[in-house]
């Protein structure tokens, strides 16, 4: 009886993760953005962030905290992200 509800939950979660992945990947493809493996955060000047967030407001979630599971999503090689895999 609860299985369809759980399946819908999983589908919604997958949709949110896919959207987050696309936003994060798109962010890092832009000139001016970098990745700091030690702090697990995106690096960019305030001016670059300001201009980017005008067009992509959902990317604001990555401005201070980065993407906690970027390595698990396969966005970086292990050497770049500093994973211990």
Can you describe what's shown?
With 85 residues, this protein is mainly α. The protein has one domain (6-81). 53% of the residues lie in helices and 7% in strands. The protein contains 4 helices and 2 strands, in the order H-E-E-H-H-H. The protein has a two-stranded antiparallel sheet. InterPro entries: LIMYB, Myb/SANT-like_dom. Residues 5-52 form the Myb/SANT-like domain. This is Myb/SANT-like domain-containing protein.
Q: Kindly state the mean pLDDT as a whole number?
A: 79
Largest sheet: 2 strands, antiparallel
Which residues form runs of ≥5 with pLDDT under 50?
77-85
Secondary structure tally, helices: 4
What is the global morphology?
elongated
Helix content: 40-55%
Q: Write the H/E string, N to C.
A: HEEHHH
Oligomer: single chain
- Broad structural category: mainly alpha
What percentage of the residues does DSSP assign to strands (E)?
5-15%
Please give the order of strands in the largest beta sheet.
Answer: 1-2
How many domain units? Answer: 1
Radius of gyration (CA) equals 15 Å
**Total number of β-strand segments?**
2
End-to-end span in angstroms? 39 Å
């Amino acid at each position: 009886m609860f299985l369809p509800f759980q399946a819908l939950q999983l589908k919604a979660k997958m949709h949110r993760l896919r959207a987050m992945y696309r936003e994060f990947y798109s962010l890092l493809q832009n000139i001016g953005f970098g990745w700091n493996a030690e702090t697990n955060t995106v690096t960019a000047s305030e001016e670059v962030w300001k201009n980017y967030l005008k067009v992509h407001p959902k990317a604001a979630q990555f401005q201070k905290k980065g993407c906690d599971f970027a390595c698990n999503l396969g966005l970086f090689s292990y050497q770049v992200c500093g994973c211990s895999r």
